[in-house]
Design goal:
Blueprint lengths: L1 E4 L3 H12 L9 E4 L6 H7 L3 E4 L5 H11 L4 E5 L9 H11 L3 E11 L3 H23 L8 E5 H7 L12 H8 L5 E13 L6 H9 L1 H6 L7 H14 L10
Parallel strand pairs: 1-2, 2-3, 5-7
Antiparallel strand pairs: 4-6, 5-6
């Protein structure tokens, strides 16, 4: 379990409390303190987490440091403002146990705080828009950084490729763009967490989040343009297609 955090003591406490109530407890919880000057690190330790310090500011830097530090076969990711339901870990573990080819399981968020209008803007325009627009672009569902689980070998293969030292990009979209043709990403609408609506409380906040999409995509252009990704997938599938059996006359 990896949770990047910067001055998120209060919300982190709620997240850790929800993790303490899981029907299947986390094997480990890694909180990445990304230069906090509040009590984030103290709250993390009090909640049973191992604290990793990442001085370079930014979610991509903090998230990557957490994945590097994680020791489990499955690496789960929440944000400090995520509140998972009690069966969140159990649901993920069961899916991975029953689907050996599953590489990444990603879900969605239900917003709390702010107003119903803000919830709708965040859910429909931001999360819904990203899911609808980016699935055909990527060739698989986009990974939602506040709610996903990946196999350890996925990170081991991609850790040296992601743009971990850029601040104003979406680290989850960047990770999505690095997914290889042989990696299977599944979106599960039942795999949900509550997330804070604070980034969308103002138009400026929403615009700032949306503005990160273009530089994230630009990092991968034109090598990971949609047509290039489709060609890559076709080549891989052709190379791994089972040989056809000859029919006897």
């Amino acid at each position: 379990m990896v949770i990047p955090a910067r001055n998120d003591a209060e919300m982190l406490a709620a997240c850790l409390e929800a993790l303490a109530q899981q029907t299947r407890p986390a094997d480990e919880i890694v909180v990445v303190d990304n230069g906090s000057w509040d009590t984030t690190a103290l709250v993390a330790r009090a909640g049973g987490a191992r604290v990793v310090h990442e001085a370079e500011p930014g979610i991509p830097q903090a998230a990557s440091a957490g994945y590097d530090a994680a020791e489990g076969e499955l690496i789960a990711r929440l944000d400090a403002d995520s509140i998972p339901p009690a069966d969140w870990i159990e649901h993920a573990v069961e899916r991975f146990e029953h689907e050996p080819d599953l590489s990444v399981l990603t879900g969605i968020g239900d917003f709390y705080g702010a107003t119903p209008l803000v919830h709708t803007l965040g859910r429909v325009i931001y999360l819904g828009g990203m899911l609808v627009a980016l699935t055909p672009y990527l060739g698989h569902p986009p990974i939602f950084g506040s709610n996903f689980v990946m196999r350890r070998e996925v990170w081991q293969e991609l850790s040296n490729e992601v743009h971990r030292h850029q601040r104003e990009i979406h680290d989850d979209l960047d990770l999505s763009l690095h997914i290889k043709p042989w990696m299977r990403v599944v979106y599960d609408s039942r795999f949900r967490v509550q997330v804070s609506a604070r980034p969308f409380e103002t138009f400026q906040g929403l615009r700032r989040r949306v503005s990160w999409v273009v530089p994230t995509l630009r990092n991968h252009w034109p090598e990971d343009a949609p047509w290039a990704r489709r060609r890559s997938r076709r080549r891989w599938k052709a190379a791994h297609r089972p040989p056809q059996r000859l029919r006897r006359g």
